[in-house]
Predict the structure.
Amino acid sequence: MQKRYQSYLYSSAGVIAVFFILVLANFVLGALSTRIDLTQGKLYTLSEGTRGVLAKLESPVKIRLYFTQGAEIPLGLKAFGRRVEDLLAEFRRAGNGKLLIEKLDPQPDSDAEDSAALDGVDAQVLPTGDRFYLGLAIGILDKRVAMPALSPEREALLEYDLARAIARATAKDKAVVGVMTPLPAFGMRAAPMMGMAQQDPWVFISELRRDFTVKRVANDVARIDDDIKVLLVMHPRGISDQTQYALDQFVMRGGKLIAFVDPYAYFDQLPSPMMQEAGGGTSSTLEKLFKAWSIGFDATKVVLDRQYASGAGQRMMPTVLTLGGAALDAEDVATSRIGVTLIPFAGAFTGKPAEGLSQSVLMKSSAFAALVDSSAATAQGDAALKDFSPTGTEYPLAIRLAGKFKTAFPEGRPPAPPKKDEKADKKAAKASSAKPAETPDAKGAPHLAASKEDNAVVLIADSDFLHDEAAVSIQDLFGQRIVIPSNGNIAFAQALVDQFAGDPALIRLRTRATAARPFTVIREMEARAQQAYLGKINALEGHLSQTQEKLQALQKAKSPGAGTILSAAQQAELDNFRRTAAETRRELKEVRKALRAESEALQFWTKVVNIAAIPLLVALAGLALALYRRRRVVAL
């Protein structure tokens, strides 16, 4: 009895001692600010890009988080709000005392609600009709940048959105973005003599003007102005070596280049009416620069992709690609949350980047693709797939090059092309005397053989996807022009400009992991089963089409005066089709049953393992410990 009492006393004292040791260890580690992130995807670890943005803070920045607290808020939104608070706490720790966080609960008719309205944070409405706030405002001195509504759908981009908003709030002036293009992206005046109506600027240009100072750059410019931070080159058809040299030196000086080249620019409008009727079809490339960067681009080939083809049946266009999912880089902030993009008549990049450069693929085709001649770009249906043979290659459609770039013109500025005749010389001389040209400043600039620091360039093998007809739907509602995005085309291009025009550290930012853990294996199983299911549907529709053609042929061969009565051959063909259709439907039912059985079984056992495994292990460990102690007692 005494031994049992002593054993109980010792065990109780041990538990108390362990408790105090854990409390003391937690207190000491907390005082030392030692933290270890053991979550998959490092949910509580900031990227180097974010730390770079916060390290540059010179003045205190205040973030007001408006988060409604109440029982009516769904648990999912509450959990997301707490994750936002945790991320802001990480920002505050990395801000070295320059980042202040204020949390407000904007209840109805409260001062916090008035403050939210002044900061530009909007109330959101639940399906029940209740209003709640989940947004924030970033302020430095008199400048405010609002994130009116935070959404769980953009949780993977939350760190990037916060870092970008802080970078915008701390920026002194709007960044200057240059646009070089022969396309009518800035709009066109009416030309009644040529039958051309007035055109508004593209929505993409209008959106850029909201956030940046947009500067139009001539297509034959000899030097890019120093105030331009980001340069967009959209479909540079017929670009000269002198202009490519200007782009080359712009990149050497640290300028950010986003180039949209195109093997078949469908929306390119040329002065010739015959070319306009043909629907464009011009090509463009940056041959000199691509060669220096060891990037291949065939301006006569477009990508045909059976898996990502747009349309269906005889209206299917496998050269107009609807990209989503695996076709987009899920880790890059420019492509991770844009949904679906529509890329018409795109080309492909090939080759391995030159030494000192690294490549990341932002968009790519499926392996069920091939390169075809651009002359067949607009073919549809069976005509487009005639002689089609997939190469098994996933063609890069948009890439980012990063590193130290070397000049494509090691011998310096290329010589100007020879003048055609003396009249051209006289015209040029007269023009130069009338107004100063851009070349003298360019001639006096020193030639750069390589970039001093790491830089980045984005190349996209299409320009049509930025056109309004490919990117948006424009409606007129009560005299108001309403623009509705049709896909993620403009969002993709805007994200690229945001990365380049903001703090350079933003380029290194990638998406964060989310707390949600979907059943990816089950989704893959369902996708494979659905692919088989759709294949059987296509086979059934194909058989139906063939049967109808045979019926029409038999009907034409029927003797006059037979009326609508089917012949024996026609009746036999119908019976045969009905039997085949019934068998196919039965097979489809089996596919659906197999899909449900396999996926439901996997879900069930996954839940069993996740829910019951730990309690079972604890129970087994307890039984094993009890048996061990019992054997020791018996042995004594």
Observations:
- The chain has three domains: 48-169, 172-189+199-415+437-501, 520-553+574-635.
- The chain is about 40% helix and 20% strand.
- Residues 48-169 form a domain with the Glutaredoxin fold (CATH 3.40.30.10).
